[in-house]
Amino acid sequence: MQLDPVAAGDLPVETTALARALIGHVLVHETSKGLIAGRIVETEAYPPGDPAAHHYRGRTQRNASLFLDAHHAYVYHIYGTSYCFNLSAESDGVGGGVLVRALEPIAGLALMQGNRRTEQLADLCRGPGRLCAALGIDRRFDGVTLFRTCALWVARPPYSPGRIGASRRVGISRAASRLLRYYERGSAFISGPRSLSPA
């Protein structure tokens, strides 16, 4: 499968639009052992002013990448065990981000399985911590631009995604009712309660 990197202008600059547009795109990590890639099938938007967002109280050393211009990586450590991968989504200086929650594995399956220590295909990248483990994403990628300027980049959709659904976000208490989670309907690889993801 040929993977074509996105270029400036391919993706929108606005958090909710970007979260929806990313469905079907491919997240790629070129490792020393080979290429690992997965189609994005689930995202969550955290727009400016969102009380559930890391950027809500302003820029800090930890969340500074969310305030870069759109399409930079923001990678953070959660629960002391896992990483989560996000893209900045607004203009420079404005906090906004899109959390990538799940991928459909399409390349480097053996590498993913080794990284995750499981052979269960549907579970390799189901959830933000699992997908980072599967692809080998950690804090060294925080702040990089995702237009193939380093080993981690985003590729154009290899084919058109299916219908896109929207629901409330997973695992938050503030602004919990907002419909800012997007997913590919019918995908076997999405995370969260199945009740949130009708086909």
Describe this structure in words.
The protein is an alpha+beta fold. Helix content is 12%, strand content 28%. The chain contains three helices and eight strands; from the N terminus they run αβββββααβββ. Strands 1, 2, 3, 4, 5, 6, 7 and 8 form an eight-stranded antiparallel beta sheet that branches. Strand 4 (82-88) and strand 5 (97-107) form a beta hairpin. Helix 2 crosses helix 3. It is globular. The model has no long low-confidence stretch (mean pLDDT 95).
Features:
globular; 199 residues; 3-methyladenine DNA Glycosylase, Chain A; alpha+beta; 8-stranded antiparallel sheet; 3 helices
CATH architecture classification: Roll
Radius of gyration using CA atoms only:
15 Å
Structural class: alpha+beta
* Straight-line N-to-C gap: 27 Å
By CATH, the superfamily comes out as Methylpurine-DNA glycosylase (MPG)
Shape call:
globular
Helicity, in percent?
10-25%
Please give the number of β-strands. Answer: 8
Largest sheet: 8 strands, antiparallel
Mean pLDDT: 95
Instruction: Spell out the helices and strands N to C.
Output: HEEEEEHHEEE
Q: How many structural domains in the coordinates?
A: 1
The tally of helices reads 3
Q: Identify the CATH class.
A: Alpha Beta
Relative strand content: 25-35%
Indicate the CATH topology: 3-methyladenine DNA Glycosylase, Chain A
Low-confidence segments, ≥5 residues, pLDDT <50?
none
